[in-house]
Amino acid sequence: MPGPVFLEGEHVALRTIEEDDLEYLQEQINDPQVWRAIGRDRPVNAAQEQSFYEDVVCTEDNVTLMITDEDAVGTVGLNGIDTGNDRAELGYWVDPEHHRMGYGSDAASRIIEYGFQQLGLHRIEARVFEFNDASQALLESVGFVEEGVHRDAEFIDGVYQDVHWYGLLEGEWRKRR
C-alpha cells in the first residue's frame, strides 16, 4: 500500500516510502541509467535495499520521499540534514522511462521549498557527475549555482569522473520566488 502524500507539486506528489516500495526501488537502483547517474558501483540486493530503508529512509537525518504521478517514478530527498549548520544535500533520481517529463524539477522544487520553509535550512547543496548534463541543467533551473569541481573524485564505469558541486542559499531561493 502506498504511503501518504506529504508534498504536492504541479505535476507530482511526494509521498512517504514504505516497505512495499522496496522491490520497485531495488529494481530501479540496479538500472544502469540510474546507478551510474548517482555514482553507485555495485548491485543492490533485497537485503541491502531493506538496510537502505531502515538506515536512510527511516532516520531523522534524512527526508526521503517517493516521486509519484499515478505510479512511482523516482525518489527525492534531503540527506545528511545538519541542524547545527542548517544545511542538507539534495538527492534525486527519476525512472529512465520518465525522463524529460518535468518530474525531477518539480520534485526538487517542492523539497527545496520544504527544506527552506519548514526545516529552516540556510543552504542546500547537491553534487552531480560531469557526464550528467541533464542533472546539471535541472539544478541550475531551480536556482543552484555551481560552486566547484572535485577532479577525478569518483570511479564510474572504469573512468575517474569529476564531481560538480552546487549550492543554493535560502536568500537566493527567496529572491527567485
UniProtKB/TrEMBL annotation:
<dbReference type="GO" id="GO:0016747">
    <property type="term" value="F:acyltransferase activity, transferring groups other than amino-acyl groups"/>
</dbReference>
<feature type="domain" description="N-acetyltransferase">
    <location>
        <begin position="12"/>
        <end position="170"/>
    </location>
</feature>
<dbReference type="InterPro" id="IPR051531">
    <property type="entry name" value="N-acetyltransferase"/>
</dbReference>
<keyword id="KW-0012">Acyltransferase</keyword>
<dbReference type="InterPro" id="IPR000182">
    <property type="entry name" value="GNAT_dom"/>
</dbReference>
<comment type="similarity">
    <text>Belongs to the acetyltransferase family. RimJ subfamily.</text>
</comment>
<protein>
    <submittedName>
        <fullName>Acetyltransferase, RimL family</fullName>
    </submittedName>
</protein>
<keyword id="KW-0808">Transferase</keyword>
<dbReference type="InterPro" id="IPR016181">
    <property type="entry name" value="Acyl_CoA_acyltransferase"/>
</dbReference>
<dbReference type="Pfam" id="PF13302">
    <property type="entry name" value="Acetyltransf_3"/>
</dbReference>
